[in-house]
Each structure stands twice: as C-alpha cells, then as structure tokens.
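Entry 14: structure prediction run for Polyadenylate-binding_protein. Input pasted below.
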Amino acid sequence: MSSVIVSNIPENCSANEVQEVFKIMKIPNISNESFDIQNSKKCRNTSTGRFVVLNFKDKTDANDAIKIINQTPMVFEKKQTVIRAAPYVNNLTSLLKTSLANIAIFNLPPEMTTDNLKQIFGEFGTIISAVVQKPHQNVKYSTGYVLFEKVEHADYAIRCAHKQFIGAYQLYVHKTNNHSQVILSRVPECKNFAITEIENYIINKIGDDIPATDIFTFLPTLRQDPVQSKKLQVIFTCKTRQIALKVIELINECPITIDGKPHPVLAQFDFQMIEAKQSMNQ
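Run finished. Output tokens:
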C-alpha cells in the first residue's frame, strides 16, 4: 500500500466535501473508507495547515493521484484553492536529517519556487519532499532542499546539476547530513582571501589524512560573522561526522596566514544551521 499526503485543505471544507472533490477529479483506487482531516503542528502563512492522508493499493495509483491533484485546482465555495499532493512518509523528519538521498541546492535564483525546484530536479528521480528557502538578511540567492526516494537519484542529481547554471546563477549541489556540517568562524575580511582561498586552506590543513573529495564547500560565498562584525564565516560539509571531527581538530590547530600574519580561526559543528533546518522541515 502507498500513501499520499494532500495539504492546504480549505479551513471550512469537511471530510465529505473533500471526498466529493476527489470523486470529481477521478482519483483512482483510493482505499480509504473515510477521510480524517488533520491540522499540522506548524502552519505557514501560505497554507491553512490542514491535510489528509490517502491510501492507495499500489505505487502506480498513488503517483497518478499526485499528478492529478497537483494539476487540478480544488473549487470550494466557488473559489479555487491550489492543494498539494506528495508521497507520504511516516519518518520524514528523520529522513530529512539523516538520509543520504537528501540534497541541498545553493545559489538558486531568488524567484525560484518549490514547484520550479520539483520540476527541475524531478528529472533525476522520484522526489519525496522539496522546499525552497527564500533569500534572507545579506543572502541574495535562494536555497533548495530535495529528498529523493533513492540514494542513486540524489547522486545522479549532484552529478548532473552541480556547478551548472540557471541564468546567471551557478548551482552548488551537495548531500546534506546535519551531523557533518562545520562552520569556520573568525575568518579575516580581506579582498585577497575569498572562498577559493578557504577551500585551499582546508585542503592544505587536512594534508594526507583525509581525501579532499570528502569535503565540500557548503556555501558559495563567505558571510558576515554575527559575533565578530569585522570577521567572516564559511560553512562546509564533510561526508561523515567522523571526518568532520577530524577536520575540526586539524583546523583549530592551525591559524590562517594572510600577508604573512597568522589569524586564529574557530571550526565547530554548525548547530545553528542544524536547528534552523530542522525547524524549517518540520
């Protein structure tokens, strides 16, 4: 049996009315005898926060239902409402935190939407969940997160999309693993020291202990350090938590040298970003 979650159900719409709408849409082979409309724990401004889970006999029927629902506006009280359908996963929050099929896409155009993201990355495999985080503070690009059904789909997306362009925006696509994200703080602000120099610094410090391919730049640009306003930060990710721990140890033993002057830096797990992502994905 396969399940589908349908969200953005109108506030005043009853379960019987939802059933009638799905009959009009000709949703195939729904096994539910009755619907139970639920309220999400966290509700965004763009959604009512009401959803229903539909059960289907097989995956083909579930996928057909998702296509029909997403392509057909729901008419309720003579008003059109765009409802959303996606595969339902009981342990979605856990998967978003740990799955090797979960990727992050940085440097997306500011106008990118979740529907755009699904359309682009849906070519690489079946998407379980996707979300776009719009630009905020000093960040001028959007960030996307996509959870694929299979690890090989995520790997394929990275191979095809990493460092490709959407208009003037070059994409940076990597696996996400909240236990291996590292933030490097207290980086001196210098015109001659940018993201490339940071990458070279990290690679030089890990030496022969860790393959350079096990570390990826996590953000395409440096950002202002919120604690020390005259310093910068950069976030990167490692393949595993064990690698991240070793990288943190090696970096904290070696300052950055700029113009012959040593500058102590601080590497640690990026707990702030972990909490933000967990909150966003709940």
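Notes: The first helix runs from residue 15 to 25. Will compare against the previous run tomorrow.
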